[in-house]
Each structure stands twice: as structure tokens, then as C-alpha cells.
Amino acid sequence: MLARIKSNGVIRVGTDPNYAPQSFQKADGTFDGFDVEVANEIAKRLGVTVKFETPDFSVVEAGNWADRFDISVGSMTVSEKRKGVLDFTEPYYFTPAQMAVIKDIGITSLDGLAGKKICVGEGTTYYQWLTGTLVLGDGGALAPVPAGAEALTQKTDQDCAQSVKSGRRDADGWLSSSTTVQEAIDKGTPFVTVGDPLFFEPLAVATDKAAPPHAELQAELDRIVKEMHTDGTLSKLSMKWFDKDLTTKQ
Q1: % pLDDT > 70, the chain
Q2: How far apart are CA 232 and CA 240, in angstroms?
Q3: How many beta carbons lie within 10 A of that of residue 64, not counting itself?
Q4: Which of 159, 190, 192, 211 is 20 to 30 Å from the Cα of 66, by its Cα?
């Protein structure tokens, strides 16, 4: 795969077009965001350019990509389940998983969501946490799930926020990365955060275990991620997009 990518001069990167500030597609069709800049920097260090693809997140995390794209730079959390179908670099950053609730609903603690519906993106670690199936790949601890809480899934995390902003009230809570939650609140979505982070996500570049031979590509991706940690590139990008350095586990 590495030889093919370098021969073609292009690496095909799967990312989310609706996950600001990590990644988003602008009106002119171009992409921007933290993950987008990370992907472009990886491509630059490989000596190629990026062609972005936008598969559903559930497709990416399921593996068996059928050669539709080469790698994922889409804030993919390393979990034990995903390690069965995907290969990962070392994490390039870490985000707190943050619960939020609709502002006027009166819930002020995680326990207040017992028996309530919580909106999450389909196939995400947030959904896995709610359904009791999440085991983080780095062995990180998880907060307990509120008793009887139910998952309401949307195509992406951002769809949860955009639904509420449009006036819908299908769920009482919303679980996403702290960065995405804060972005939505800053843009006027009527949410408030509740409680401490539920867990801390190790987020890594992923390749498909079912892809053509890619050990050399995987090793090169891991080398580049480590290099970007060492030379401060990832810290600078984190500060630019999140106003904080999320490149080490909190």
C-alpha cells in the first residue's frame, strides 16, 4: 500500500464532513479542521497529497473498507473491539467524553439522566459506553452509566446538536467529545455540560486489517505521528483548534 500511495502521489483519507472543529466540509467543497490539518501534514511528510473521502463513521469503525480509502484520520478512538478489525498508530490526541443536557431541562448531574434518552452518533464509543460494550484500548477507566439511560442514535454526533438547535427535543442529553460539545455551545446550541468527563479517548490514525499488505505503511504512519508529537506540530494544531493542548492524556 505504501508503494502504491507514493506511486499515485495521493493518499485517500476517510474523515467526517460534519464534525467541527475536528473536521468539516465548507460550502466550496474543501475540508478544514484539526483532523483535516493532521491528515494534510501526514500526507506532506509522505510526499503525497490528500483526497478526502466521507464514509459514514459506522462504516469506518466496522473495518473491511473494500479499498474505498487508505486510512482514517477521523478522531477514531482505540477500543478493544476496533482493534479486532483495525490497525492503529499511537494516539495523536486525547479528548474527554463530555455529557451535556438541554439547557432548560433542569438536570444538573449525571444521575439525573437515569431513565432518560441520550443522543449519540451511531457506531461511536459514546454509543458503546451507553450500551455497556466499551473497553478502551489503553485500559482507561469509564464512569458508570446512569441507570436505565437509553441511546438515541444519529448519523453523527453533530446531528444531535443540530437537531436540538432546530427546535427538536427527541432526547434529554447528548454525549460527544468535549471539543464538539463546546463548539456547539459556542454557536448557540442550548446545551450545558453536566459533570466531569466520563472517560478519556485515545484517538489514532487507523488502517483496515483487511486491506492489502500495509505493514510498511502502518510503520510509516506511526513514525510520522511520533515525529509530529516530538516536533510540536500536534500541540500547535491542538491549540489552534481547541485552545488547549490535548496531545497528552489528562
Answers
A1: 100
A2: 12
A3: 12
A4: 159
Q: Which residues 6+ apart lie within 8 Å of 102 measured at CB?
A: 164, 169, 172, 173, 190, 191
Averaged confidence pLDDT in the chain? 95
Rounded to whole angstroms, the Cα distance separating 43 from 68 reads 17
C-alpha cell at 154: 444519529
Q: Do the beta carbons of residue 61 and residue 76 sit within 8 Å?
A: yes
Assign domain 2-93+202-242 one CATH number from 3.40.190.10, 3.40.1000.70, 3.40.50.1400, 3.40.50.150.
Answer: 3.40.190.10
**From residue 123, how far is each of 165, 179, 188, 205, 231 by CA, in Å?**
23, 19, 26, 17, 33
Mean pLDDT (whole number) for 227-241: 98
Q: Is the pLDDT of residue 250 over 80?
A: no
pLDDT tier for residue 157 given thresholds of 50, 70 and 90: confident
pLDDT for res 83: 96
* Closest residue by Cα to residue 96 from 48, 141, 156, 53: 141
8 A C-beta contact, residue 123 and residue 159: no
Angstrom distance (rounded) from CA 153 to CA 155? 7
Q: Which CATH architecture has domain 95-193?
A: 3-Layer(aba) Sandwich (3.40)
Does the structure show a pLDDT above 90 at 123? no
Kind of pairing, strands 18-19 and 23-25? antiparallel
